[in-house]
Specification:
The chain has 27 helices and 36 strands. Helix content is 30%, strand content 27%. An 8-stranded antiparallel beta sheet has the order 29-30-36-35-34-33-32-31. Strands 3-5-1-12-9-10-11 form a 7-stranded mixed beta sheet, with helices on both faces. A 5-stranded mixed beta sheet has the order 7-15-14-13-8. The N and C termini lie far apart (66 Å). Strand 29 (816-821) and strand 30 (827-837) form a beta hairpin. The protein is globular, with a radius of gyration of 32 Å.
Amino acid sequence: MDASNQSTLDATRKHVGTRRQRVEDQAILTGRGQYGDDAALRPGTLHAAIVRSPHAHAKLTGIDSTRALALPGVRAVLTGPDLAAWSRPFVVGVKQPMEQWSLAIDHVRYVGEPVAVVIAENRYLAEDGVDLIQVAYEPLGAAVSIDDAIADDAPVLHEKVGSNIVSDRSFHYGDPEAAFAAAAHRIGLTVRYPRNSCTPIECAVVVAEYLSVQDGYDVQSNFMGPFSLHTVMALALKVPGNRLRHRTFADSGGSFGVKQAVFPYAVLMCLASRKAGAPVKWVEDRLEHLAAATSATGRLAHIEAAVDADGRITALSFDQFDDCGGYLRAPEPATFYRMHGCLTGAYDIRNLAVRNRVVLTNKTPAGLVRGFGGPQVYFALERLMQRIAQQLSIDPLELYRRNFIAADAFPYRAAAGALIDSGNYQGALDLVRNEGGLDQLLARRDEVRARGGLYGIGYAAIVEPSISNMGYITTVMPREAREKAGPKNGAIAAATVAVDPLGGVSVVIASAPAGQGHKTVCAQIVADVLGVDPDNVTVNIEFDTQKDGWSVAAGNYSSRFAGAVAGTVHLAACRLRDKLASIAASQLGCQTDEIIFAEGKIAPRNRPEAAQPFTRLAANPHWAPALLPEGVEPGLRETVFWTPPQLTAPDDQDRVNTSAAYGFAFDVCAVEVDRVTGRVHIDRYITTHDAGRILNPALADGQIRGAFAQGLGAALMEEFRYGQDGSFQSGTFADYLVPTTCEVPEPVILHMETPSPFTPLGAKGLGEGNNMSTPVCVANAVADALGVSDVTLPLTPSKVMALMGMADPPPSAGSQAIPKASAKGGKSLSASGEVRLAATPEAVYAVLMDPAALAKVIPGCNALTPNGDNRYRADVTVGVGMIKARYAAEVALSDLNPPHSLRLSGTGISSVGTAKGSGLVTLAVDGAGTLLSYDYEAEVSGKVAAVGGRMLEGAARIVLRQLFDQLGRQAAGETKPSWWRRLLDRWERKS
């Protein structure tokens, strides 16, 4: 954008840059929003539920759907053998002999992997059908962590690959070896970034229909893009792209990146529709979302800096492993390579060495989570900056100032290829000190420490990329492979602006917003260009691949909107304005450049009396095309495609400009740590942003607050946990903690603007920045408060207490059921205690040895049949929280010492996982009754384990209470059920 165009834009701008209220809110706040579950369905639409693997790694040896298909209302069951005729595996960006289909074919590689789909007349019947599907597994060893997966004896996830490292690439820029050899200091550290994800209010929704061989598929979903994955979906369905119509809903209940992971389910529901012969709807529930949607990529990184005596960094070395889960699912390894060009961050570092290894583990496939790549890179880089400042005794702000890219160096070409467009990073430091109250925080730190408190201040400086280069992912391939495949680059955005026969203005954009306010901003932009009120501009955000202008880069990801989509809307509006100006000039008898658009009118600049209402003059070409000036084509609809020319393919030296624009954020976090509880209290959080031109300050601040809240969750609460066997252990919000408004303080937001010379409006993205900067900024503050060198996210109270050298107190004595990590994986429950029963030990022992009586004692037992000496087959229904399953179990009695003691053991398998346990029961005379003592340990895995420790603990107590209550009544000869049994029976009859 040249200076003359910018000055013209500034002179005419009335709405862009103002805090205009969102037009989207009225419908949403009055209940008129149209989310995925609100979509109108065609008559005859069926509903789907998914059978998921309870194992992290197993051979899939058989699926029996007979019982499910016999259930009235179940119309079809889709299984792996159906897929070969209608689909193929998803393509991936790394050429390795590994396959992922939309359903597991012969192996399962993570807990929650889809194994079958039950299609029924309603969701309730579909869920009942899921419980009746019998799947045979042969469990295999699991590689759960990066360390497990890269070990020499690790179980290999994909046998044809032969290794769990599916990509290993090294890069050199400049001369890092010489820089390290000459450096006064070599300072490094090893960090781990944990797996976490997003928790939007609305989970995934897909409505799919198979039309015919000729017409293909029609899909409606809340998929957010990038629409390069439309190609991946079409290829997987074995249809041309024009036979996969994909539409989005009018509203989306949040995404934060995670709804990129809807695309495999769009394919799956297309196949389910084809199998059932009817449209199919699927709505993801919360447990499915947490366990199996996607995850931020976990990273293990060693980073080292070559540092001069004065603190100037001359070289960086990254050695990184990314945990991408059970499959390398598109667009991964995007988390590595989106940030590749700007790995040196905000710093002027000319020498760089990088080694990237993509690792597969028995966990959910990784994907796009807000700021993907940024949190992982900056957690290493900014922890290193604090380490350098500490070891060299340099004030952190001075260290930043010495290493920042100079303000007069922009556009700046980074060592790995990023062309950083504009900025003034030193100015941000001044802004923080002058307007953020930094000096006050430094004084407060001294004051709190003087009275023995734990107070720390952390910093983080990040470059925030926006408008991804569609060719960056090809950096994972060697130059020869890229040449063979052909170059890929650019970031095409599309927008359409039109005038209707009554002079109304409408806009269509190729995006898929999830609550950011795109309608509001687009209306502001078009209103400024055409001189009308934003309320008179209608913006359509419902994406339709068969009707709208779009590209492979379309979608709502990587902060594309402000720089690319909004900029393209501006270009389309300008093109339409120029056409209208030539028509108006002909009718008003003046030159085209004399026409102005303002206050809802079109007029010659020097003849305001000749002004005509915009709605009248702009509508005329519809009614009287014969009056169009010579050379002006009919129609008032302009569609513009735009791509930044700076986004070229990776060059022969593997340098790549990964994004079109680069914002900047500098954060300061002040924390006080409670010595007693380990709780981290945010005293003040200052975040300074340069996102070029701010299009709507209110919406910009909303995006910053949202990213800050998510970043704070990653810093203090959020982490997906897995057992050693790969069992997922964070399946509810009781165990996967997310911050609420009570835990999120109001950040101090400061703005500065250095417009981008590479985007039409000078705007850059800012919706992801704090999810990149906040986790490490909080970590640096806590490390400063505690005086420790290494910290690991999330900084929960127990971790903070451990950093202070204080362990949790032991549990209280007495009867208890304590969930704990099992040495073999899964969730383990230990229970011990004493119960007094109103029957003799002989009577109690007799009940335990009588199959008919024992069946009445075991909670949820539907049937108990002998299977050898003191061994039985059992059909048992167990419920934990919202999870209820029917287990095929084996029960055994051993170590018999009548009537004093015995051991009760059991194992079971169900559609939601496995369970096994063993307990010693002892009986002693207690007056006229019996004192029963028990010491029991049970282990559960799969979906039941995912509900988390708190629910398992409560369930264990209830089950034990029921068991011993019934045991006592059976032994005493009582036939009247207890009050809780009567209540339960009554509830079951009603339901």
